[in-house]
């Protein structure tokens, strides 16, 4: 930090991207220009290449083409709005050349909100429909998240065609985001009076440097701009709009916050199900009263038995009139769902509900018409079965949607952590602050300087450039204690500044912040399908047809014996015949079996677990990693930065004379302050801490002269008129300093502990020594011990020397050690263990350990800091704490246990419910499950599974190690 002036505050902390153009550069090329490569067979000479180039270059939209006869390749540059790869490929094939599939394809990604999915069959149907779209490379559909992530080739298909495919499958689809709008801003425009003004602003923005995509909403008068944060930012875009106006016109743009789509749609879905349930109840309750209650209460229900025509009664007519709106208006959603499912060749819950309600309704209509036309016919209608069945199913869906909303609570809380406003500082040319402006956090740009006062949240990721404070990062990392921050330290957006005012320069804004990346990782994890989900997928394929067959056999199994009087006549309830009894049993079997609960068993548990893990500083990248972690039998630990802190520090001091400890350290630090060696920095830092302990808070070190570095030995300097030597035994021998037996013994003792012994001599007399080491993390030994109790073996693999490795391993309790191994060797060790049938995890710092992290069954990156998107790791431990290794494994075990319980619960409903619904208990106990009660059971099954998953919200870490207070200097005085 400079002592005078603050000009450094204006200097960019991060260099501009290499792709950035200087101010005033010519407008960039339109992004819709694409490049594609074909493999062309049959090119025999240069004239073949020329003919291909001539024909393709003549196509509309083709900007350039290069054909290589030797490699048999054609590279085409074209405008996607005027032509496509298929047209180009066909043009080459018309010249009698064989064109292979594209060798290089541009892959784009988009996320869609899927509406109307009810069970696993629905999500599989959407996935199949997406994968059938030409150009779609990969599609993942999350049932619980109600989203789809699609990887596609924009040269072959478009987002509109992908959405159409989902809609053709019978589901709704809305675009959430695409790959080119990760960094985007919504602006509300004012002052536009004509279409020319709109076109002007759109042109100005599209030609602005760093703008990737512009999307206009003419109804709301808003514009969405996707941009490159390395080149531009929201405030520059607003300025572009304002500068586009020619007097007397005046354009103005303000930040627009569109409603949160997921939350708005969730609330809309909840309201929709609630309203449908209430409308259904409005008709179903009277039907129930007229059918089940009033006829039992004489004389109040006698009027329902009055005949209107022949044997048709008032009760029949009222039940028919009241049930019909429930069946065909409120229940229309089940018809639509069943139609689209059967059209696509699969079956789902809607098919079961439609079959059950239609069987009850149309049989009841038959009874009414028969009674209307016959004076002697007597029969019992089932209108209450149809109406109440729809009502209970809608109630179950209403409760299920509300419960599913709770599964993403942890993620919602993360997204709300960032503050709405920030205090932006403006400086003059001399670096002096001239203004403090409160602006929206969304308007912050890279390299902005912001002021954060005590008690406020950090708006974006950045680096402290002035001031000191403690920052509470528990909401991001789960670390309970506030972390000290000083100039040069990084801060994370969404954390809380506790007790000091700090000036921060923004390094990551928008979607690049740690908070945004955490949310993106968790959302991706929730969308990924866990391997255990395959069980539900397999069952769901034949589940509904099996249930339909079981219902038919149930009806047949009761109807035929009834017709031949094979069971006592008193089994048949009054006002019923054998056909109606059999029909009720069949309908009950149809509706009691619900595939929804089975489909929700895994994704809801994964959603809750990944969200809970993120809130505690453990980022699990998908259901695959979550499932594998519970199988871990061996964990390989790196040493530096994993088992150890990764920062050398003085762990012990020794005095060999009567000189005070503080004076010894002051002299040593005075000699070392000009050195950049890590050990020198450790001595200087130790001296500062020692001063604080003794009541001195000065950072000023003693003046030194004649400073000299002795490579491989140490340093020498004249400090306060004294010759100070700080180094190893070799330095002392070089200056002919005598080593006493006591010093020799201390050096040997220190080296046995794998520590570096630094001797301090004043005027050629050794006055003391400092033992420097990379200390173990305080929780290391407890974590290794706890892993052993979990049946997991711990192994250390490091590139350090054997003496250090064995000493560290002995201290933490690791028995198996591999030392002096390079990163590739670590990966080979993991593969050797995997060959023995072990599921192996690797815990490393995510940089030089990336080959091992990728090779392991589960890679855990520790020491991630704000860079949470470590590609090689399956799990990111944000706190850099070894406790979270146990947390990740334990959370995995708890989640898999919960998923199994969900499967037992979901299948248990069907295994126990279907026989009861089929009437197994009826001959012995007289107990039967009416269709409306079977519907209530079916609805309860889905709700119960979601609530079971929600219990994971109560998860607590199995191990939490509090750092024990240690002596500040670790001094041994003799």
From TrEMBL:
| Span list, region Disordered | 1-32
Q: List, alphabetically, the CDD domains matched.
A: HMA, P-type_ATPase_Cu-like
What sections of the protein cross the membrane? 277-297, 317-336, 348-369, 381-399, 542-561, 581-602, 903-926, 932-952
UniProt EC number? 7.2.2.8
Q: Secretion signal: which residues?
A: none
> Where primarily located?
membrane
Question: By its UniProt entry, which InterPro entries does this protein fall under?
Answer: ATPase_P-typ_cyto_dom_N, ATPase_P-typ_P_site, ATPase_P-typ_TM_dom_sf, ATPase_P-typ_transduc_dom_A_sf, ATPase_P-type_domA, HAD-like_sf, HAD_sf, Heavy-metal-associated_CS
Domain of life per record: Eukaryota
The record ties this protein, via PROSITE patterns, to: ATPASE_E1_E2, HMA_1, HMA_2
Subcellular localization = Membrane
Reaction(s) catalysed by this chain's protein: Cu(+)(in) + ATP + H2O = Cu(+)(out) + ADP + phosphate + H(+)
Q: Which Gene3D superfamilies match?
A: 3.30.70.100, Calcium-transporting ATPase, cytoplasmic domain N, Calcium-transporting ATPase, cytoplasmic transduction domain A, HAD superfamily/HAD-like
Any idea which GO molecular function terms this record carries? ATP binding; metal ion binding; P-type monovalent copper transporter activity
Q: Tell me the keywords, alphabetical order.
A: ATP-binding, Copper, Ion transport, Membrane, Metal-binding, Nucleotide-binding, Repeat, Translocase, Transmembrane, Transmembrane helix, Transport
Would you tell me the Gene Ontology cellular component terms?
A: membrane
Q: Membrane topology type, per the record? A: Multi-pass membrane protein
Similarity comment text for this entry: Belongs to the cation transport ATPase (P-type) (TC 3.A.3) family. Type IB subfamily.
Q: What is this protein called?
A: P-type Cu(+) transporter
């Amino acid at each position: 930090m400079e002592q005078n002036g603050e000009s450094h505050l204006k200097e960019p902390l991060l260099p501009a991207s290499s792709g950035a153009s200087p101010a005033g550069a010519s407008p960039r090329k339109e992004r819709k220009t694409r490049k594609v490569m074909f493999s062309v067979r049959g090119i025999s000479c240069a004239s073949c290449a020329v003919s291909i180039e001539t024909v393709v270059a003549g196509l509309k939209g083709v900007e350039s083409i290069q054909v290589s006869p030797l490699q048999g390749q054609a590279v085409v540059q074209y405008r996607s709005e005027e032509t496509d790869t298929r047209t180009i490929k066909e043009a080459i094939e018309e010249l009698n050349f064989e064109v292979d599939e594209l060798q290089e394809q541009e892959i784009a990604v988009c996320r869609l909100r899927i509406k109307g999915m009810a069970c696993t069959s629905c999500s599989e149907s959407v996935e199949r429909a997406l994968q059938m779209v030409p150009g779609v490379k990969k599609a993942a559909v999350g049932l619980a998240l109600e989203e789809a992530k699609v990887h596609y080739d924009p040269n072959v298909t478009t987002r509109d065609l992908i959405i159409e495919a989902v809609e053709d499958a019978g589901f709704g689809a809305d675009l959430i985001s695409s790959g080119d709008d990760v960094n985007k801003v919504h602006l509300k425009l004012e002052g536009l009076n004509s279409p020319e003004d709109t076109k002007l602003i759109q042109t100005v923005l599209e030609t602005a440097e760093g703008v990737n995509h512009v999307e206009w909403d003419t109804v709301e008068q808003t514009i969405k701009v996707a941009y490159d944060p390395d080149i531009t930012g929201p405030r520059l875009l607003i300025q572009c709009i304002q500068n586009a106006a020619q007097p007397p016109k005046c354009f103005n743009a303000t930040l627009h916050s569109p409603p949160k789509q997921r939350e708005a749609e969730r609330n809309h879905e909840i309201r929709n199900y609630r309203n449908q349930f209430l409308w259904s109840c409005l008709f179903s309750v009277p039907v129930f009263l007229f059918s089940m209650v009033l006829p039992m209460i004489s004389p109040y229900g006698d009027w329902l038995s009055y005949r209107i025509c022949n044997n048709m009664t008032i009760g029949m007519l009222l039940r028919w009139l009241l049930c019909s709106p429930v069946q065909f208006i409120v229940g229309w959603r089940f018809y639509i769902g069943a139609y689209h499912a059967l059209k696509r060749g699969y079956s789902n819950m809607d098919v079961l509900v439609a079959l059950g309600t239609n069987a009850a309704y149309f049989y009841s209509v038959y009874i009414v018409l028969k009674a209307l036309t016959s004076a002697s016919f007597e029969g019992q209608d089932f209108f209450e079965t149809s109406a109440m069945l729809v009502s209970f199913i809608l109630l179950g869906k209403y409760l299920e949607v509300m419960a599913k909303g709770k599964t993403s609570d942890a993620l919602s809380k993360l997204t709300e952590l960032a503050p709405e406003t920030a205090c932006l500082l403006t400086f003059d040319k001399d670096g002096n602050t001239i203004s403090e402006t409160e602006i929206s956090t969304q308007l912050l740009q890279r390299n902005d300087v912001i002021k954060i006062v005590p008690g406020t949240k950090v708006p974006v990721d950045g680096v402290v450039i002035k001031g000191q404070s403690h920052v509470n990062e528990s909401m991001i990392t789960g670390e309970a204690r506030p972390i000290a921050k000083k100039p040069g330290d990084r801060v994370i957006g969404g954390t809380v500044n506790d007790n000091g005012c700090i000036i921060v320069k923004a390094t990551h804004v928008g979607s690049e912040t740690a908070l945004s990346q955490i949310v993106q990782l968790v959302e991706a994890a929730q969308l990924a399908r866990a391997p255990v989900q395959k069980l539900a997928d397999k069952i769901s394929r034949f589940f509904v047809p099996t249930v339909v067959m079981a219902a038919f056999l149930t009806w047949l199994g009761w109807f035929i014996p009834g017709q031949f009087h094979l069971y006592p006549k008193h089994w048949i309830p009054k006002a019923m015949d054998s056909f109606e009894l059999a029909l009720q049993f069949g309908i009950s079997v149809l509706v009691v079996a619900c595939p929804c609960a089975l489909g929700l068993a895994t994704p809801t548990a994964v959603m809750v677990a990944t969200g809970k893990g993120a809130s505690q500083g453990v980022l699990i990248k998908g259901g695959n990693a979550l499932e594998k972690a519970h199988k871990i039998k061996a964990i390989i630990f790196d040493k530096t930065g994993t088992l150890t802190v990764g920062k050398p520090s003085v762990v012990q001091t020794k005095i060999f004379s009567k000189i005070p400890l503080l004076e010894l350290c002051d002299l040593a630090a005075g000699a070392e302050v000009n050195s950049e060696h890590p050990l020198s920095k450790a001595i200087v830092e130790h001296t500062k801490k020692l001063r604080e302990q003794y009541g001195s808070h000065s950072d000023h070190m003693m003046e030194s002269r004649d400073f000299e570095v002795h490579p491989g030995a140490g340093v020498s300097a004249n400090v306060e008129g004294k010759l100070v030597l700080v180094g190893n035994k070799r330095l002392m021998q070089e200056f002919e300093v005598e080593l006493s037996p006591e010093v020799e013994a201390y050096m040997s003792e220190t080296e046995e502990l794998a520590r570096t012994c630094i001797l301090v001599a004043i005027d050629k007399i050794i006055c003391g020594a400092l033992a420097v080491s990379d200390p173990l993390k305080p929780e290391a030994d407890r974590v290794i011990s706890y892993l052993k109790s979990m049946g997991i073996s711990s192994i250390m693999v490091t590139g350090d020397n054997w003496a250090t490795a064995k000493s560290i391993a002995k201290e933490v309790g690791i028995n198996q050690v591999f030392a002096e191994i390079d990163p590739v060797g670590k990966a080979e060790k993991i593969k050797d263990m995997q060959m023995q049938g072990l599921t192996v995890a690797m815990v490393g710092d995510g940089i030089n350990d990336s080959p091992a992290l990728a090779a392991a069954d589960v890679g855990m990156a520790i020491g991630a800091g704000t860079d949470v998107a470590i590609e090689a790791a399956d799990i990111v431990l944000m706190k850099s704490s070894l406790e979270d290794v146990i947390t990740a494994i334990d959370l995995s075990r708890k989640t898999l246990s919960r998923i199994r319980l969900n499967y037992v619960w979901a299948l248990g409903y069907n295994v126990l419910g279907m026989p009861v619904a089929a009437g197994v208990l009826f001959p012995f106990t007289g107990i039967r499950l009416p269709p409306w009660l079977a519907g209530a059971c079916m609805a309860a099954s889905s709700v119960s599974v979601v609530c079971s998953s929600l219990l994971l919200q109560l998860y607590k870490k199995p191990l939490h190690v509090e750092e024990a207070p240690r002596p500040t200097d670790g001094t041994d005085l003799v």
